[in-house]
Structure formats: C-alpha cells, structure tokens
Amino acid sequence: MMTIVSVLGLNFGIVLVMFVLLWLVSLKLEDASIVDPFWGMGFVIVAWATYVELESPGQRATLMLALTTLWGLRLSAYLFWRNWGKAEDRRYKAMREKHGERFWWVSLFTVFLLQAVLLWFISWPVQLGMLSGKPFGLLDAVGTLVCLLGITFESVGDWQLARFKSNPANEGKVLDQGLWHYTRHPNYFGDFCVWWGLYLVAVAGGAWWTIASPLVMSLFLMRVSGVTLLESTIVERRPKYQNYIERTNAFFPGPPG
C-alpha cells in the first residue's frame, strides 16, 4: 500500500530525473526556454505516475488524473505551438548574458531544478488527493467545476491572444477585448482556478493540509513569475499598455475602471 511518504518520495525522484534530462537537452539546443512548454506536461507525468503507483485507484484518483491531464496537455501543446521556430525567450537570454560561460550549470539550479521542486510541491493536492478512497461529495463537484472554469478561462484567453497577434494590423496594439477586457491576465487567473479547484477535490478526500501548494502557486502567479514579472518591462516595450493598466483589473476579472 502506497503511503504519503512513499508517493511523494518516488515522485520527487521522477521529477528530478525529468528536469535533469530536460536540462541536458537544453544544453544541446542552447535554449533554456524549452522548460516552459514542459511545465504542464510535467504535472501530467506526475499525475500518471501517481495513478500507476496505486494498487486500486478510486474514482477521485481517476477524476484528478483526467482534470490534470486535460489542463497540462492543453497548456504544453499551446506553449509548444507558440514557441515553435522562435529564438530563446528574452528572460533566459538575459540570464545567459549575465552569467556568460557559467550559464550552463547555473541554469541547472536556477531554472530546471527550481522548477522541478516547484512542480513537485504544487502538485501535492493531486498526488495526495489520489490516495483517498472516500466517496464523492458536494466538494468534489464544486472543485471540478472551479477547475473546469479555470481550464476554459485559460484556453479562451490564450486563443483570443493568439488570434489577436496573428493579425499584422494589431502590431504594437494592446488586446483589450473578450476576456482581456475584464482582466489583464485571463490565462493566469485560469491557472489560479485550476489549482484551487484541484485543491478542493483533494480536501474532499481529506488532504486539506496541502493548502500551501495552491497558496504558493497563487503567489507566483500574482507576485513573482506571473503578473509582476511580465509587466515589469512591458510598458517600455508597449507604451499603450500603461493606459490598459489604469483601467483594467490585473488579475481577478471585473468591470473596467
């Protein structure tokens, strides 16, 4: 019978191996940004690894596997499509220029292993929620609806942005229509809903104490690598974005100001 310690320990080893292999590929390609499309897929692999480890997966395990797979595959496919044929992302280029010849091993710790640990920790509700054999309840239904809302919000937001960017006439303009009319980051808000939805399902299974995982994810989305990082230089590149900031909610959707 799998225990909390054995599940977390085995999955931690799997995640470390995945990201070290990905780091080796990045050295060959000289492109650290390949880590971005792998982010969603990493959660899918962890979910499937946990599911396979269980002797007799229950309905909740199957539900969490399905939700995580749907979210992760869509995200990875979209980012892979968006980044295909493009040069290394400017964030990693800046790091490469800063560290010079040391970047090959600095990237292992500051990019790949860091994301490995974050992925492993953020996925705790999925890993441990799958262990529960408790019957379905109202909280499972609420969590599923919140998660599906997040996947839909994120998918529609990404599709609207991709369509906007595909029109040459929009060069230099700021998307403020559709979901982007109510929040500057519908994709990040969607992610937020996904992980709180999965957490609610985990709570229904008794894993309420994994709350630190969605809290950390929320912190990164709103204050670290999400909104804050993306908007730190965007006004310099797109002066019209300042007006967009002044009239549109940063994260949670709401009427424009």
TrEMBL record:
Gene3D superfamilies: 1.20.120.1630. The keyword Transmembrane helix applies. The chain crosses the membrane at residues 6-25, 32-51, 63-81, 102-124, 136-156, 188-209. Keywords: Membrane, Transmembrane, Transmembrane helix. Pfam families: DUF1295. One of its GO terms (cellular component) is membrane. InterPro entries: UstE-like (IPR010721). This is Uncharacterized protein. It comes from Bythopirellula polymerisocia.
